[in-house]
Amino acid sequence: MPAALAPRPKRLTPLPALGLRHRHIYILMILFAVALRWAYFGDPAPDYDEQIYRLIGEQMLDGRLPYVDIWDRKPIGLFLIYAAASLAGAGSVLAYQLLACAAAALGGILLFHLARHFIDVLGACVCGILYILFLSAFGVHVGQSEVYYIPLLIAMALLTVRTAESNDLHAVRRASTWAIVLGGLALQIKYTVLPQCVFFGLCALWRQWRLGSSLSALARQALLYAAIGLTPTVIVLGLYWYLSHLDAFLFANFTSIFFRGHLSGAMKDEYRIRIAFMAFPLAFCALFGVAQWMMEKMAARSSYLIMLGWLASSIAGFLMIGNIYIHYFAPVIPAILAVAAPTMGMSRVGAVLTSITFLIGLALFDPISGYYISQRNRIGFQQAASAAAPYVGKNSDCLYVFDGPTSLYEATRSCLPTIYVYPDHLSNAMEEHAIGVNTVAEVSRILRNQPSVIITASRPIVPHYNAATAQLINQATSRNYVRIGAFQYYPRLLYVNVRRDLLEQYRSREKPVSHL
User: H or E segment at 454?
Assistant: First the structure.
């Protein structure tokens, strides 16, 4: 073949290619994310997990060290996101909620660009919209950790697909390195991304082998990728070692999860059925997508196989913890939509399937009901905070939330009675042997310090209370505390229990003086 007619090496285009060409689609994604999430903007306690993330972020700004001064088992990168949002937003809850909304929209935009490798603009746009919708439907409707790290995984997939379509070895190595950097950052938000990071790393090595890399070169690249991916975690580990708190870091991040109890078989079955029901329309579209791909023998064969592998690795990440919760499935959503992408490009069948899927997703999330629940909960939360606030202090007479919103600590400007401020850690039977201390001893210590107010609830939100700690709280509240209010907080009541002697002092100060 004449040199002039020889095919040129296919080079990588910049990633992500987020120019103004598709700005109308970006605006649509942003507006759709806002429309789904606006009902929760400003809600101080819209869900449970992000409340502890925000509190830890706030405490970090005050100089407290996660895992040592305030405890949770999530990676420190997640707390840094909340600390940054709090700093930028002057402590407003709206800051992290807007950041989470932007992250959801960014995930939709990145998935749009990924789907463009398989379908037209309209079909790719549908993929992005469905991602934003089902992310909320699967419980990531405000600030769960998944909303922040999933865009990093989609960007990794996009980089990996572009390496599969390039014949430029140096460009492939460069793009793969950036993908591993993103994976390392994602690991410091949640460790369950590990299977996906490993998969994308193997894809990078496979592509380089196909482009002629020697085994020794591949071995060097593998070591380099492992080093790059683990660097953020190693930096944090080194910091805790320097501060003489390495044991606390290792236990919280890597060991404690193995001591956590398991959901009962009945509850696991219930969650499996719910997830299967919710994911069925997506899975159905994915099966049609695979069939369409096989029938049409699409040009992007390697890229589509990568999507199938990504889906398998994301399911592995979903299953790796053992316990199953609805929001754990969220990282599977972009991969299953990428596999379903050819369906979105089918004319009549695709239009019907995607329309049905969209309506099901909307029904599952039900933003209208969410709005009314949020509005009612805000009232109940503020009433509970106002009832408790007069009795708590910043340095003494701490509030103790045994069961209820963690945000009450901030709303009442209370001191913290324990480093285990997330209620689950001391109230949930599954955490009884998983936090590194004897839960009964810790609750007994809290009660000896006589918290001024104890928050309890009409029914547990966890599967089962820790029977021993719940009994201690019941005994203390019945003997030494007075319930001054019961406030609606869906789907239960919050009880505000004030220490008896403090209540008497407060009432005596308010009693009018009679003049004879």
Answer: strand 453-457
